[in-house]
Design goal:
By secondary structure, this protein is α+β, with helices and mostly antiparallel strands. About 20% of the residues lie in helices and about 20% in strands.
Length: about 200
């Protein structure tokens, strides 16, 4: 996996382990291999080195900005009363070969300064249709830029998911275990039939 892919995708792209159903199973006798049919679909193109796969970018986008923020703690950098950017306090160990390092100050993503939460979402949203990921940052006072092309055309589903001004909602299946729900009427008093 290339360095930029690790930056964006990290642990999200770990391999899944598929387990079979339990219980005793008997092996079927080996059959002669069937002749391979020619596939009508064109072969999938490999992502060129140094580029991000569109499918990987889409997968991360659908996780939402908190996915990145949980993995990369940052602190605000202000000089002479003006916002400069976000200092990277730590990076996951498996991202050790990326160009960004602890102490770097990210000033822009795809030309957007990330001063407010709305700015973060705007930059994140723009990646749904962007042809590259461009991170402008400072290291020891020197300005730098990381530019990584995104391989593949934007997908209709991801572009539509980010068409509104609010983040796409992830599907929820059920209330998490251990959740306590307290219901009250408009006056704040417990509802009838519930314990005081």
């Amino acid at each position: 996996m290339s360095t930029p892919v690790r930056l964006l995708l990290g642990a999200c792209l770990s391999l899944s382990v598929v387990a079979g159903c339990g219980g005793p199973q008997t092996a079927a006798p080996a059959a002669a291999p069937a002749p391979r049919a020619q596939s009508a679909a064109p072969p999938k193109q490999a992502v060129p080195a140094g580029q991000l796969a569109r499918a990987d970018v889409d997968r991360v986008l659908m996780q939402g900005p908190p996915w990145i923020l949980r993995r990369v703690p940052v602190e605000e950098v202000v000089r002479a009363g003006a916002f400069i950017g976000w200092k990277i306090l730590a990076l996951p160990a498996d991202w050790s070969s990326i160009e960004l390092k602890t102490g770097d100050v990210v000033t822009q993503v795809n030309g957007t300064t990330l001063e407010r939460p709305d700015d973060l979402f705007a930059a994140y949203r723009a990646l749904a249709s962007a042809s590259e990921l461009k991170i402008t940052y400072e290291r020891e006072g020197a300005a730098r830029e990381l530019v990584v092309p995104i391989f593949g055309a934007p997908t209709k589903e991801t572009v539509e998911a980010f068409a509104s001004d609010s983040p796409p909602r992830r599907a929820t299946t059920a209330r998490p275990r251990g959740t306590t729900v307290i219901e009250e009427d408009d006056g704040g008093a417990p509802l009838e039939g519930s314990a005081p």
